[in-house]
Inverse folding.
């Protein structure tokens, strides 16, 4: 479903990606691991169309993500991709419910419908009690589950997560992983996550180990 072939990306003299190739399948949870600075985040950014590689190919469902117009790429990102970051990156001025409803509102869904769907998802993720609170009033674990809800509400085909559990204790980290795994298994979404925690990587179906800007090894985690 998502393919990276021979990606090269330099920042000045730093070669962040040096011939990275990868495939991700529907319903699969893929963990990108490896030392800091080995190119994991840069690959995630190339796969999700945030930055363009200097050379190489990124394909999503038959589309060439690098060659497509900016407008087409933004539309793809909005409709097919969901994003989760290390520190939720929720809008502090909005309530948790409004944060989760936001992607639907931006897609033109009516407020009542968007709010109802957001409330339902918060309930499923067991954070209904923070719906009317601002992110600053929720705990780290709650906030991150709200961030996952916001990423899932548009029912994306691919979920990109950059250290989604990095700021959480192991119990909350495991909880967030279970939500991402459920999205993959129940809806057939692909999940690509960057993590430096072996414990978190062990939940994935497959692990791609980065070294010096490329995938050095790929192992079945279980
Ligand atoms: P990882 O996610 O594995 O820690 P990154 O992809 O963040 O690795 O970074 C790979 C290399 O590229 C590092 O040396 C990093 O400093 C460099 N790098 C990443 N993004 C930028 C950028 N925007 N500008 C300059 N250097 C960057
Ligand atoms: P992460 O590894 O989680 O992406 P970082 O703190 O390494 O977090 O990077 C944060 C942002 O800064 C990213 O957008 C990354 O591309 C950029 N970045 C990383 N390394 C460098 C660098 N050496 N110079 C400039 N920007 C960088």
């Amino acid at each position: 479903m998502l393919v990276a072939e021979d990606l090269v990306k330099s920042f000045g003299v730093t070669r962040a990606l040096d011939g990275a190739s990868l495939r991700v399948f529907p319903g699969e949870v893929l963990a990108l691991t490896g030392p800091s600075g080995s190119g994991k985040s840069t690959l995630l950014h190339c796969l999700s169309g945030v930055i363009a590689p200097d050379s190489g190919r990124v394909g999503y469902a038959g589309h060439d993500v690098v060659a497509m117009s900016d407008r087409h790429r933004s539309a793809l990102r909005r409709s097919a991709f969901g994003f989760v970051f290390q520190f939720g990156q929720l809008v502090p001025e909005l309530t948790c419910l409004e944060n989760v409803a936001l992607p639907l509102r931006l897609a033109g869904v009516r407020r009542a419908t968007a709010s109802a769907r957001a409330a339902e998802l918060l309930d499923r993720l067991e954070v209904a009690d923070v719906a009317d609170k601002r992110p600053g009033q929720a705990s780290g674990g709650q906030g991150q589950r709200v961030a996952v809800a916001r990423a899932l509400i548009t029912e994306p085909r691919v979920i990109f997560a950059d250290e989604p559990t990095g700021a959480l204790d192991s119990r909350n980290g495991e909880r967030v992983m279970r939500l991402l795994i459920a999205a993959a298994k129940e809806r057939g979404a692909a999940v690509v996550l960057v993590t430096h925690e072996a414990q978190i990587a062990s939940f994935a179906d497959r692990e791609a180990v980065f070294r010096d800007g490329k995938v050095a090894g790929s192992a079945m985690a279980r």
